[in-house]
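User: Structure please.
Assistant: Input sequence and predicted structure:
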Amino acid sequence: MQSSEVLDVFEKLLNAAQHPGIAKVERYDGVVSGIRVRFSWETDGFLWVKADAPAPTAGPEPTGEKFGTAPYLIKLALDLCESARPGGFASWVPATYKGMPVAPSGLQIKTTDGGTVNLRVTSGGQDPEVNPHAGYSVPAGIIV
């Protein structure tokens, strides 16, 4: 499975999430390919692939101790994978990239064809103090 196919799956998952805080999901390609998620709290989350990125190590689950858009997007992506169990994905785990100030800082996707796609997750903008949609839960039975 190519990284572009993995991004296709995440784009579909995020659009199917019925998340009240997601205002827009859009794909971008270029030197870096990824997905931009515009949240209603005016912060963007980015889930992206970079070909020369070093492989991450296994990272901890996001704790939610302090709200941050990037850790929230990691947790949301993991929860969406758990709900949908996307075909072509063998496993999905949080990942930590060397030199990044936060852990986890991305996702590692193992594909059923034996491949691995490493995704970085970052954000831009001002995070709110608390999760504005703390009561949200991923709908059951998402199909992509």
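The longest strand covers residues 116-124.
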